User: Which sequence fits this backbone?
């Protein structure tokens, strides 16, 4: 009992540690990558003994120190309790969602198989949607507690956008659920180890290409990053619902946004790109479709799988950063139209086609 | 058992806050917290699907809608607390609670639930029951939701 | 981790329901009255699920599914009505909504 609890605690610690670290590193990658994309150098003024490290010292040391030592103020007639609560409400769901995302198959330690997933719920995917719907609270409360019309406008836009794209996100995943027949992410990832026609791994993107596009679009819209930046609207409504937040609270909002980027990347990886699956790698080694078998120690297999997961998550984080600095911002009515009139019907059509296909495939048996 | 007591006391505290707070937004947040704690209580009662549905639907959608409406209507004043109404209300609620206690505790209740399979309350078993025994109510519920959506859109439109 | 007995869950449900009733009687803001009604519905949900567990039947949980659906529909229509009445009366006090003529 104690051993089980401590194993879960260690896994939870590792997951939160890695997510927060990745969120921090993404802050640096965003600044440097945006600079390179826009053909400029980026932040390089803060340096220790002349070592500026491509903006690392600036973003990872100077910026946090600046944020944490700024004055923390609450607007004059703003709501004190809610103003302090909002960043916590924004950060909490982004971190907690990672509890059901599997980052590896099993780790065999001392005869005990440890499932590399913090919590194995039978309702797995629904937990993620529950946490996604809780993440709207941070926006709404943050906007209200600031007692500021721009803030309120940004908050209302943000809440409406998030609620609309939650629906599209949920419906686009139903196709994946039908194909793999389970709600539990670890079982879904294990099912993606099968081979289609003997050589193609049964990843979600091959079985549900439309679902992948819809889900990725909806997930990017949920994180409220460009091109779905209307709630934050840097050139229109100052900073939307962020405007009255400074210092540590803004850092929490900021970290929450990057944690959501990592979470979105983790979800896309798990549902559509095989999670921790390396093609043709089973628990005892590589089984190539042509015939050869390359045996590997179980620990090596586990390390390879965890590395594959990390690599895929980092790739999708990179893709989202690239997307942000390439596309212009959508107008708010364009965002709403995309969510309701294009993504929602497309997701419904996807579910319908998938269901018909599954029923037709199962007929002869 | 300890978990139950912590959750029960927390839910009672938050629900009293719903009734007692003068600021409407604080009431709404207290209700959201109560719904979340009730969802966790559902999880302890072997109803994982309904617990998570409570979070997605109630705490995640209905409460956001209520907060939206509060933000849009922007009620200016903070309510007064007339003492007379508060005593009447509290006495009425206490009387109701004691009636409930008398009714519920009179009947001999099962001391422990029957041993249920692991999938009790899970998505498969709920779906099985829902789509075989309760197909008609399910379809009627979908029509009800459609009617509610149309009704809400029509009611909230500005008259020309 | 022992399971709490059924009586505790029923008492908790009854207490939450009573607090909801107090909210409907005491408060002078229709939105808070609506929220108290939601609290009452949730207390009933808790009772249903407790009975479903202790009688081993899934029907209790399916009923809660439908109660949630109906509560969602009711909250939506109720809020639409409140918005529409607010436009005319400019007030959320139920005493200002007692007479049909404005």
Assistant:
């Amino acid at each position: 009992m104690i051993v089980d609890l401590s194993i879960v605690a260690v896994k939870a610690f590792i997951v939160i540690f890695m997510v927060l670290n990745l969120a921090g590193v993404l802050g640096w990658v965003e600044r440097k990558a945006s600079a390179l994309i826009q053909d400029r150098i980026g932040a390089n003024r803060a340096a220790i003994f002349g070592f500026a490290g491509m903006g690392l010292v600036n973003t990872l040391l100077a910026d946090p120190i600046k944020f944490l030592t700024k004055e923390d103020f609450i607007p004059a007639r703003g709501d004190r309790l809610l103003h302090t609560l909002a960043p916590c409400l924004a950060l909490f769901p982004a971190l907690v969602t990672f509890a059901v995302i599997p980052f590896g198959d099993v780790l065999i330690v001392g005869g005990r198989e440890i499932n590399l997933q913090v919590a194995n719920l039978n309702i797995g995917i629904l937990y993620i949607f529950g946490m996604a719907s809780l993440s709207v609270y941070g926006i709404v409360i943050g906007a209200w507690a600031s007692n500021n019309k721009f803030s309120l406008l940004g908050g209302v836009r943000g809440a409406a956008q998030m609620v609309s794209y939650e629906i599209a996100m949920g419906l686009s995943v139903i196709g994946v659920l039908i194909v793999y027949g389970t709600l539990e992410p670890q079982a879904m990832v294990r099912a993606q180890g099968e081979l289609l026609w003997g050589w193609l791994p049964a990843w979600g993107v091959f079985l549900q290409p439309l679902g992948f596009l819809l889900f990725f679009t909806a997930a990017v819209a949920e994180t409220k990053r460009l091109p779905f930046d209307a709630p934050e609207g840097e050139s229109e409504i100052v900073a939307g619902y962020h405007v009255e937040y400074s210092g540590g609270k803004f850092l929490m909002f900021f970290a929450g946004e990057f944690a959501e980027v990592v979470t979105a990347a983790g979800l896309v990886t798990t549902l559509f790109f095989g999670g921790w699956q390396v093609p043709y790698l089973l628990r005892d080694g590589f089984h190539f479709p042509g015939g050869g078998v390359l045996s590997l120690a179980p620990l090596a297999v586990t390390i390879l799988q965890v590395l594959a997961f990390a690599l895929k998550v980092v790739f999708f984080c990179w893709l989202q950063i690239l997307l942000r600095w390439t596309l212009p911002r959508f107008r708010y009515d364009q965002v709403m139209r995309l969510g309701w009139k294009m993504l929602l019907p497309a997701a419904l059509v996807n579910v319908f086609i998938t269901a018909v296909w599954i029923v037709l495939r199962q007929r002869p048996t | 058992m300890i978990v139950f007591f912590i959750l029960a006391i927390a839910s009672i505290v938050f629900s009293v806050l719903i009734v007692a707070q003068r600021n409407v937004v604080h009431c709404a947040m207290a209700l959201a917290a109560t719904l979340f704690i009730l969802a966790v209580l559902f999880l302890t009662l072997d109803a994982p699907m309904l617990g998570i549905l409570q979070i997605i639907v109630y705490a995640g959608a209905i409460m956001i809608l209520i907060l939206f409406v509060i933000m849009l209507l922007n009620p200016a004043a903070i309510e007064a607390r007339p003492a007379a109404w508060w005593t009447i209300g509290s006495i009425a609620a206490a009387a109701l609670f004691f009636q409930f206690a008398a009714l519920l505790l009179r009947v001999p209740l099962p001391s422990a639930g029957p041993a249920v399979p692991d999938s009790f309350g899970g998505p498969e078993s709920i779906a099985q029951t829902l789509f075989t025994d309760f197909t008609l109510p399910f379809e009627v519920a979908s029509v009800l939701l459609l009617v509610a959506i149309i009704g809400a859109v029509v009611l909230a439109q500005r008259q020309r | 981790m022992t399971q709490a007995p059924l009586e505790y869950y029923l008492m908790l449900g009854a207490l939450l329901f009573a607090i909801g009733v107090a909210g409907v009687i005491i408060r002078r803001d229709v939105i808070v009255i609506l929220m108290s009604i939601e609290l009452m519905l949730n207390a009933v949900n808790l009772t249903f699920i407790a009975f479903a567990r202790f009688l081993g039947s899934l029907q209790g949980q399916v009923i809660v599914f439908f109660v949630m659906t109906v509560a969602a529909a009711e909250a939506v229509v109720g809020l639409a009505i409140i918005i529409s009445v607010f436009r005319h009366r400019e007030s959320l006090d139920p005493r200002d909504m007692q007479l049909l003529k404005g």
The mean pLDDT of chain A is 85. Residues 222 and 299 of chain A are 37 Å apart (CA to CA). Strands of chain A lie at 106-109, 112-115, 195-196, 200-201, 281-282, 285-287, 293-295.
